[in-house]
């Protein structure tokens, strides 16, 4: 790898052993993927995926203490993934004991993050790119982020440039101020490897469509045709909310870090089919294919006929529009079912900044009246509790379904279950 004089000086120890090791780590990371140079981070903010103070992560806390003692802090303010705990989310006495043990280092870890450069006390969300959070990169900006759903959104919808980094690597990039240039940071790496044709007779469920594409293309880049028929050709609030959930499913059910949508996402609008590599294979998705994919999801509940005890919505965190739309949908479904409150304990999760904005609308009290709990929690971290794994939990999030024991249902199925109940 060819380094600038300034980068080589850091590697040679000009700013101490700790910074030299950070740069060496980034060099080794880049060389593993064929990078020939480093490029400066140009976005104002970073994002870190590690948000939970789990007791067994002692090496991480020791590393961060070393960084802090040597004043190797981030050159960017950064947001972090959601907190793992919220007292408002239903949990048993035994679950709470396990949570306390699991996340015993939470306060200590959050203090480390504040000293390293956390954006604000409430900058904990997997959807850091939402306007209410304040971490929205511009098109073409180079990022050092980790969190698969955030990276794929930033690359695809916003047109920023970021690789699918791991936890800690992203922080090292923010400390150094540069990252290795490979993959999705390059023009060549952003070309489409697949053509995906949407031929459905109705709007495809975002989570299932993303799942199907992710499982087919894995870590490659798809160019998607026909989706704008259903979600329009403008990146308005509705389209962005759809793409948030769609992208998270491509990233968790596969390893997609970038997708292009014909006539909609920035690079597809500018370059069209010129983005597609020669001889790219085609994947056709119709209603039958989506049904096949949905039916392929396993359920690992011990009792497959168990009644759900909890429902999580918002993985990734819900947008302000989604909170408003779902309030209206739940109200209407409850009236139709003759019920005043949801029949299954239900948690909607969103970013603290979005929740604060939602509280300023008429819909906040209306959602409360339905019995739904609004939380900033990370559902994944809740489900990591061994006692939570044994619970029959339902969700319409393919990410949560993939990484936990939660059972997947489509949005309309979830709506029916939580408002009518399950017999």
UniProtKB/TrEMBL annotation:
First and last residue of the signal peptide: none
Record Pfam families: AcnX
UniProt key word ATP-binding: no
Keywords: Iron, Lyase
MF term (GO), any: lyase activity
Phosphomevalonate dehydratase large subunit-like domain location: 1-407
Lyase found in the keyword field: yes
Listed name of the protein: DUF521 domain-containing protein
């Amino acid at each position: 790898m060819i380094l600038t004089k300034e980068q080589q000086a850091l590697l040679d120890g000009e700013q101490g052993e700790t910074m030299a090791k950070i740069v060496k780590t980034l060099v080794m990371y880049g060389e593993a993927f064929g990078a020939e140079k480093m490029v400066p981070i140009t976005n104002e903010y970073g994002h870190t995926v590690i948000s939970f103070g789990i007791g067994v992560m002692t090496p991480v806390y020791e590393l961060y203490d070393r960084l802090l003692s040597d004043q190797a802090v981030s050159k960017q303010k950064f947001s972090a993934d959601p907190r793992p705990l919220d007292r408002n989310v239903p949990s048993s006495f035994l679950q709470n004991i396990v949570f306390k043990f699991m996340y015993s280092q939470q306060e200590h870890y959050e203090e480390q993050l504040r000293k390293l450069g956390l954006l604000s006390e409430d900058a904990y969300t997997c959807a850091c790119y939402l306007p209410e959070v304040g971490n929205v990169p511009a098109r073409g900006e180079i990022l050092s982020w980790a969190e698969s759903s955030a990276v794929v959104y930033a690359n695809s919808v916003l047109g920023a440039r970021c690789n699918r980094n791991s936890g800690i690597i992203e922080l090292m990039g923010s400390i150094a101020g540069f990252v290795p240039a490979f993959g999705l940071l390059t023009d060549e790496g952003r070309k489409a490897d697949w053509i995906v044709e949407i031929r459905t007779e109705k709007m495809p469920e975002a989570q299932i469509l993303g799942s199907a594409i992710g499982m087919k293309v894995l870590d490659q880049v798809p160019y998607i045709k026909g989706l704008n028929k259903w979600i329009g050709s403008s990146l308005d609030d509705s389209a962005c909310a759809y793409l948030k959930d769609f992208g998270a499913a491509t990233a968790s059910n596969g390893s997609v870090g970038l997708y292009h949508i014909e006539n909609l996402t920035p690079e597809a609008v500018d370059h069209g089919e010129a983005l597609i590599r020669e001889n790219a294979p085609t994947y056709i998705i119709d209603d039958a294919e989506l049904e096949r994919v949905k039916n392929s999801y396993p359920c690992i509940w011990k009792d497959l006929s168990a009644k759900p005890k909890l429902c999580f919505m918002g993985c990734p965190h819900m947008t302000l529009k989604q909170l408003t739309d779902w309030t209206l949908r739940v109200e209407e479904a409850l009236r139709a079912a003759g019920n005043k409150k949801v029949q299954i304990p239900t948690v909607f999760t969103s970013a603290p900044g979005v929740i604060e904005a939602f509280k300023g609308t008429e819909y906040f009290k209306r959602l409360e009246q339905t019995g739904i709990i609004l939380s900033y929690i990370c559902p994944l971290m809740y489900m990591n509790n061994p006692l939570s794994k044994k619970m029959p939990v339902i969700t319409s999030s393919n990410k949560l379904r993939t990484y936990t024991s939660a059972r997947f249902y489509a949005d309309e199925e979830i709506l029916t279950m939580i408002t009518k109940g399950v017999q």
